[in-house]
Amino acid sequence: MDTHKNAPLTPKGREAMVRSVVEGGLSQAAAARRFNTTPKTVAKWVKRFRTEGVDGLRDRSSRPHSLPGQTPAAACAAVEALRRQRYTGKQIAAEVGIAPATVSRILQRLGLNKLSALEPAEPVRRYERECPGELIHIDIKKLGRIGSVEHRITGRYPGAVNRHHGIGWEFVHVCIDDASRVAFVQVMANLRKKGAVAFLETAVAYYARLGVRIERVMTDNGSCYRSRLSGPPASASACAKSSPVPTHQDH
Q1: pTM for the whole thing?
Q2: Where are any strands of DSSP class E within the chain?
Q3: How many structural domains comprise the chain?
Q4: Residue 243: which domain range?
Q5: Mind listing the pLDDT tens digit for each residue in 186-242?
Q6: Which of 5, 157, 172, 184 shows the greatest Cβ crowding within 10 Å of its Cβ?
Q7: Is residue 92 within 8 Å of residue 103, measured between CB atoms?
Q8: What is the pairing mode between strands 169-177 and 136-144?
Q9: Same domain, yes or no, for 52 and 91?
Q10: CA angle, 168 as apex, 166 and 170 as ends, to 5°?
Q11: Is 207 exposed, middle or buried (0-12, 13-18, 19+ CB in 10 A)?
């Protein structure tokens, strides 16, 4: 049971209450008035304290000691067996001779209330390159510039004239090595070919300082990666120029 830390009748409060009766000589009625409860409650905790000591002042489960009306274990086993044969709840109820609601509760307790639970989940299949530099992932995140704090701080109502209109965007270029997950991030001023190529060259140089040679680059099909200058895409040319080993470009 969840009890507020300052509640008067937590186990600690109960101990103070019963000790005021057992050791302090207070009557149960006087202790009830002091601890804002009833004499019957005081008598219950005093009895438990005298029988079991301090351990008897702890909360107990409200579950009954016996459940004579519960479904027999054999019926629960039959429900599970039929469910694993893909019987519906109504079919199981008719076969076993119990109520559909009871079948539903049993299946829920067994975790078989959905047919999908009868088949093991597909294992998570993750791929990962074995060596750093075999593959790097490059992408760009477009973020609006923040000119100042918003109306929740300044008190200006949301419908006020937007003083930050037209202040522009920033483009976060992100590169992550597939094997080591070492990342390199740089904020660029645009989303154009020149910025993408400059970032790629800087990223390759960064990994080279770590002793990593880049073999492959994976990007999306953004226009800055596919831009051409009377030849192959500029990013492919930058790969061949920046890497000391043959470099492949995957889209």
Answers
A1: 0.46
A2: 136-144, 169-177, 183-188, 216-218, 248-250
A3: 3
A4: 136-147+166-250
A5: 998 888 888 888 898 899 999 999 999 989 888 887 788 777 654 445 555 556 655
A6: 184
A7: yes
A8: antiparallel
A9: no
A10: 165
A11: buried
